[in-house]
Structures are given as C-alpha cells and as structure tokens.
Design a protein that fits this description.
MIP18-like; about 40% helix; 4 helices; three-stranded mixed β-sheet; single chain; FSCA_dom_sf; GMP Synthetase, Chain A, domain 3; alpha+beta
Length: about 110
Amino acid sequence: MVDEMRKESAVTDLQDRMLEQLSKVIDPELRIDLVNLGLIYGLSMDDNVVTVTMTLTTMGCPISAVLEQMIQSSLEKLPEVDEVKINIVWEPAWSPDKMSQVARMTLGYYN
C-alpha cells in the first residue's frame, strides 16, 4: 500500500512538472500558453516516452510544427523524458470554453 502511494505521488509530481513545462510554451499568435488555452487534453508516459494528447485551435493551424517543436524542447528538459510524441486529436473539438479564466480575460473573451 505504501509503495503504491509513493508511486502515485511520483506520477503526480511528474505530471505537475510536465504541465509546468507546457505552461511555458506560448502560442506565438495568441501569446498565451497551451495549458491556459485548454489545448492539452492528456499526458502519459511509458518507458521515458511522453505522449501529449492535444488539439489545436483550428484544423490546418499554420504553426502546428512550431508548437510541436516547442513542446518537445520543453518536455525534454525533464530528466525522466527521453522522447516526446504528440497526438493531435480533433474530438472533443476545441472552443474558447476550454480556456482558463486567465486566458479569457487576457484575450478579452467574455461569455
């Protein structure tokens, strides 16, 4: 039981640190980080390979390759991460409702 709790704590710590790194990845067009934009849907790790499940604000986003490189660079700074894979999904579709309150206020989006 104690070992399971330690393992869960370590996983939570790593996920928190991954989210902290991703909060430093700023969308060059919107000037808000990917976490506050609500673009990150999930993080998983297997054998030191992180898979980021995310979406983009629009299909055919012209800066998707730039964002992917920024995400990889950011997460690879963590000592536990050897490789980053990015899984872009379109379901559920992104909408401004997925943004944090901070992002909404920054962009002047009020609903």
